[in-house]
Amino acid sequence: MAAYKPVVVQACPKLGEKITQDTLYWRGYKTPVQIKEFGAVNKIDFSPVPPYNYAVTASSRIHIYGRYSQEPIKTFSRFRDAAYGATYRDDGQLLVAGSEDSSIRLFDVSGRAPLRQFDGHTKPVHLVGFLSDKYRIFSGGDDYSTNLWDIPSATEIVSYSEHTDYVRCGCASKVNADVFITGSYDHTVKLFDARTKSSVMTIEHGHPVESVLLFPSGGLLVSAGGRYVKVWDVLKGGQLLVSLKNHHKTVTCLCLNSSGQRLLSGSLDRHVKIYSTTSYKVVHSFNYATSILSLALSPEDETIVVGMTNGVLNVKHRKPEERNEKSQKKRQPAYRTYVKGRTYMPKQEDFCVSKPVKRVLRKYDKLLKSFESSKALDAVLEPPIMLHTPEVTVAVMQELHRRGTLRSALAGRDEKQVNLLLTFVARRVIEPRFTPVLVTVADMITDIYQPVVGQSAIVDKQFLKLQEAIGKEIDYQEELLEVLGMMDTLFATFTEKRDTYLEGNKSNGLTETIETNRND
């Protein structure tokens, strides 16, 4: 008796993911560490000086974490209500934060009590930051105002009331110590100069602005609001350079990597997108469990920290690079070790021992081997196989049709099984690689279950879906045939013109030759 031959599953080429340098670079992070905070994380800020600790603002506390610590190394909790936007100064010595009670507090990172308290806003303050001269603070609140404060005297220098809605984000220029930028829910981004009494530039973003970012050079500005990330040229008066719409929900945070060549954006759609700052195309993306509110990248891109709405802090550290010294010390066997004896030809007096190769049959192959057609079809109609490897399901159907047992395997099924069959056929019949087999299956199902049409609303709905799918495919094919006919006509016209042109050239050449000979 001949051995059973397993079902041959047609292999179809798959388009693999394109592996780029960015893919390899951004995949080079360890499994994330999850830290639970007391509330939604509204701001994460890295200290600009070693050891690059980071401040996390959540609920009514500010926690300072070390680079590799999972517990806070310091906590600032002198807030009566929620704290917002804790930000480091450029020297890493001071920390400023806004609050729900409209006051601004300045902390020394080595102490616990506030050094200064600035009162002037009448509503919660979400935006605070240092100007690059290190002696002034700017702030923005829900009272629509933007204020500038002097640190030594703890007094207000100037107040701007140009926004018409909540001021929720901003940043300071690293090039000019008098320039800072604010973004508001009134859809505008305003550029202020501390030497003037009003804003010097207004940019219309078109959506409530959630985050703004200024490139280190000070020439380009990035704003995020709604589903859009927009890049503006400040030196050209706020000209829009590019508008990116790669997120499905509101973009909440922005940051740059250490080299300034990659822009990161976090969104409520649970994704962090990474863009190239030369082409502004997405080069990589990260997926998270819940909506993202804040994002920060450490100097040298060693750590990515993401804060989410459920109060979870997600921390990823870069994998250490493998040293070449160890890899050189570990010596691999020579190639000849693996191929030794493969070319040996047995002699006449040699006794050859062959080891039988045991084949492991899959479940559907075992059932087909024992001629259980209906159970074999049931085995490949399981959801994991139908969804991820539909070619296996179709291959078994084709084998049953070759044996002549497909009709008996399809018959005698209940409502749930018929619904499953029709769902698969309606979804996959339009794929060219499955069409020849599934059209036959659809014909058989229609013939077998035509007498019971109208008895089950679920089955009737699936029959209508199948009819609609086939109808649409026929319409597409007809349109494609029309386009093909048009293209054939055009190609034929081009060919005729070319032939006429060549014949004309030949005849002209012959006439010229005859005339030349006559003149001679």
UniProtKB/TrEMBL annotation:
**Pfam families the UniProt entry points to:** UTP15_C, WD40
SMART domains under this entry? Answer: WD40
Q: Where is the protein situated, by its record's location annotation? A: Nucleus, Nucleolus
Q: Which residues form the U3 small nucleolar RNA-associated protein 15 C-terminal domain?
A: 344-490
Main location (coarse class): nucleus
Q: Which UniProt keywords apply?
A: Nucleus, Repeat, rRNA processing, WD repeat
Question: Which CDD domains does the record cross-reference, listed alphabetically?
Answer: WD40
Please indicate which superkingdom the organism of origin belongs to.
Eukaryota
Q: Output the Gene Ontology cellular-component terms.
A: nucleolus
BP terms from Gene Ontology: positive regulation of transcription by RNA polymerase I; rRNA processing
Q: Which Gene3D superfamilies match?
A: YVTN repeat-like/Quinoprotein amine dehydrogenase
InterPro entries documented for this protein: U3_snoRNA-assocProt_15_C, WD40/YVTN_repeat-like_dom_sf, WD40_repeat_CS, WD40_repeat_dom_sf, WD40_rpt
Q: Where are the WD repeats?
A: 118-159, 244-285
Q: Which function does this protein serve?
A: Ribosome biogenesis factor. Involved in nucleolar processing of pre-18S ribosomal RNA. Required for optimal pre-ribosomal RNA transcription by RNA polymerase I. Part of the small subunit (SSU) processome, first precursor of the small eukaryotic ribosomal subunit. During the assembly of the SSU processome in the nucleolus, many ribosome biogenesis factors, an RNA chaperone and ribosomal proteins associate with the nascent pre-rRNA and work in concert to generate RNA folding, modifications, rearrangements and cleavage as well as targeted degradation of pre-ribosomal RNA by the RNA exosome.
Question: What name has this protein been given in UniProt?
Answer: U3 small nucleolar RNA-associated protein 15 homolog
From which organism does this entry originate? Pachyramphus minor
